[in-house]
Amino acid sequence: MSRLRVHNFLVTLDGYATGEDQSTEAAFGTAQSEFLPWFEKANIFRPADQPGSAVPAPSVNESIAAAWGSGIGADIMGRNMYRPATGPWPQDGWRGWWGEEPPFGTPCFVMTHWEREPLTVGNTTFHFVSGTPAEVLQRAQKAAGWLDVRLGGGPSIVNEFLAADLVDYLHIIQIPVVLGRGVRLWDGLESLHKRYAIESATMPNGTIHLFFTKTPSEAA
Amino acid sequence: MSRLRVHNFLVTLDGYATGEDQSTEAAFGTAQSEFLPWFEKANIFRPADQPGSAVPAPSVNESIAAAWGSGIGADIMGRNMYRPATGPWPQDGWRGWWGEEPPFGTPCFVMTHWEREPLTVGNTTFHFVSGTPAEVLQRAQKAAGWLDVRLGGGPSIVNEFLAADLVDYLHIIQIPVVLGRGVRLWDGLESLHKRYAIESATMPNGTIHLFFTKTPSEAA
Question: Among A78, A189, B151, B209, which one is most buried in terms of CB atoms within 10 A?
């Protein structure tokens, strides 16, 4: 069965996964200057399997970050991971944060109350769909076939899928930052840990990897 | 100069350091059943330097936990670490959670708006004092002489001392629990991490030690 996986999801010590006041200039809003250096340190933007590049033996961090790309057949993300805006879509030609070669290469389901025609950019086709997390996951799994579905952000979307018990694998990169304000990941998820086996690994770069793997639910 | 140190302070993934509804039966209230096993795993209740006991070579966790006891000349705690109650002190003969041999062995300053006469239990004398964190710290440092002052809980008290920039050393034991409700440690402490060097270590028992050591403040 196709699993739902979250990878490389940065969370601060105080539980925030992004800041306030997202804009087209700052995907992480007020957290931008705190978060970007940690994305660099975690090697998220430097996948070890980039074809054609002379990559040395990957570090532990690079290997973990690169797991993001393996065995994925479809993506799901919240609207704010595609663009900052609420209400009807602005007609400004926005094609995502990623330029003309988005790193997904999949059918990518953008959750929105404002459905619209799909948009293909590079190897990625964005589908703008409404529905509950379970409904959108079903569509994405159908598109993914036997491969897994990857869940991006933002934190509200990941929180909703966790609350609905739909996430099979959750990889957190905890960063030693007390952000103070923004959007929290963990709210309303009391006892979440009981549904997962949890491993952790401290990195010399100051990050802590936390891996949540779904444990089989008890027989009814 | 006498430092202010916090040791063995359990915090959940979602930032809670205790639950709700503390009572004389449950020091951690609704978090009691989640927290107590982690205190055991962290070896907090089994100091390696207990005199006269046949202790094997201490584990990493035991060594870290035992650092709690070294070089301390006075303690500070919030009222709720001494007993659960607000307003005037109940006349019920309560002498703390620790029986007739409290583990402190120091002059112990209990912060309260309701001052009262000191109470000596075993080698510990509890002083019930009002004042700002800075004022109470000054009294405790005077009592500690050249030794350090240890700051206990609860989370609100530690939060207040952190907000007032009075804590020199903060040792967190992060536990893989999403508690969902209780009293948070980190609220209102935006950018706290910039005042500390932070180290972390993942333990096979599932806990993560985080060590915050005060860095010298920049020259004005």
Answer: B151
Complex-level ipTM beyond the 0.95 threshold: no
Q: What 8-state DSSP symbol labels residue B23?
A: B
The full set of domain ranges for chain B reads 4-46+58-86+99-214
Chain B hits for A200, CB-CB cut-off 8 Å, are 176, 202, 206, 208
Least confident of A72-76, A96-100, B164-168, B210-214: A96-100
CB contact at 8 A, A161 and A191: no
CA–CA gap between residue B196 and residue A29 (Å, rounded): 24
Contact B141, B74 (CB under 8 A): yes
Q: How far from B10 is each of A8, A78, B17, B41, B196, CA to CA, in Å?
A: 25, 33, 6, 11, 19
A178 touches B at CB < 8 Å: yes
Q: Is B211 near chain A, with CB under 8 Å?
A: no
Q: What would the CATH number be for the domain defined by B4-46+58-86+99-214?
A: 3.40.430.10
Q: Chain B: residue nearest A33 by CA?
A: B191
> How is residue A172 written in tokens?
């957190």
Residue A149, pLDDT score: 98
Architecture of domain A4-45+66-85+100-214: 3-Layer(aba) Sandwich (3.40)
